[in-house]
Amino acid sequence: MGKVTGFMEAPRRTPHRRDKTERVGDWQEVYLKWDESEARRQASRCMDCGVPFCNSGCPLGNLIPDFNDFIYHGNWEEAIQRLHATNNFPEFTGRICPAPCEASCTLSVNSDPVTIEMIEKQIVEHAWENGWIKPEPASIKTQKKVAVIGSGPAGLAAAQQLARAGHTVTVYERNEQIGGLLALGIPEFKLEKSVVERRVNQLRGEGVRFRVSTDVGVDVTHEQLLERYDAICLSGGSTVPRDLPVEGRDLKGIYFAMELLTQQNRKLKGQEFPPEENIDVVNKNVVIIGGGDTGADCLGTSHRQGAGNIVQMEILPRPSESRIDTNPWPQWPTIFRTSSAHEEGGDRDFNVLTKRFVGDDDGNLTRLECARVEWVKDEETGQFNMNKVPGSEFEIKAEAVFLAMGFLHPQHNGLLDSLGVDYDPRGNVAADGRMRTNLDKVFACGDMQRGQSLVVHAIASGRRAARQIDIFLTGESQLPTVTGYARPPIMARSAVAENSND
Description:
The chain has 19 helices and 16 strands. The chain is α/β, with parallel strands linked by helices.
């Protein structure tokens, strides 16, 4: 590395967040721009360790020590080339990835890790500003046609890789905007939609065709898909939310998290909603059930809508402030985390069970009846069992509740059932090591195949599916492998076997 002692001289620093009293008044990105000199100083902390665990910690196998070294030496153009060798969309992962690479950084053994996520963001933004990111259309066309169903991060990654391999790619999206979760599910203050749109425009320049507001299975039948295309890539999301079927669930004012988040993103695009459909929490008491990132997104959105009081509840215990003995490095640290939304206000409560929702005579939600729980370890099995604490019942006032408890599996009715794909025990589309479903020429990737997961996993899955589809269509592939560790970005066709599982 350029500076062997950098990790001893420079403490970890991240870009500053905008003042919370200012940012809750708009929908702009939370983070301020990073100074180039500080990015180089942070890159110098990469410590030239013998085994770069960050490579294997990253599902994409990003070449992290390489681009850190380039940044330290000020070689930004080389850095973006090395970053793009494994990651189609570093501007997405640099904003919304929880950075498993940083959890695996060798510095995390006893210090603060390298700021890998923010360095990624700095590299790609520098590249956009300097005009280095342009369409890269294939020089040779294969005359093979591929349909990609779903335009989230997995679908976009698969589409871009397949287009660069020379195939004619059409992406189908049932919503009116391209991007899936990126466009409609993630709040503007975490990912401004102009960031998504400029990358989609690059794909258009590479020949990818987009068909929006098209519900495949309804507007286009599965028979038409199978007839028109040489291969089909199922890359829809895990869209069926986990519900809370307790008494009072049908009261007005109880929503799934995505109902709030997608509606707010549509509002920012100028769409208007009738009063009976509009979700507005101004001056209301809000309860968010679920302690994860989606719950935090609801929290930040509720702040910006002007909620009066907000409580985010979780049925699990409050995580510890630091790693416990059973959660050693380089595992993902299950520790207490504070997001930008939590900085902005609201209360957090743990070990809370929602017993029932209570409303008024008009069917409007007014409060929740809850109880405290404790988690007791069974010494024989090692499993933790939930027990209600006697006499711990309490109530919370609420006119709006958002259920942010995760997702079960993709939507079955419609395309998937009509195609006749097999499902795994969790209800996801079953696929083998080559991303193939039980149907000839039908592949699956992303959350639809893996289950609810991270954007970085979705991109990796889309890239992997693209390679397998390319092999299926042509017998070989020059697209890179995706194995979670560093490999050359391009492999010779002669080195690729038809039965490759990578």
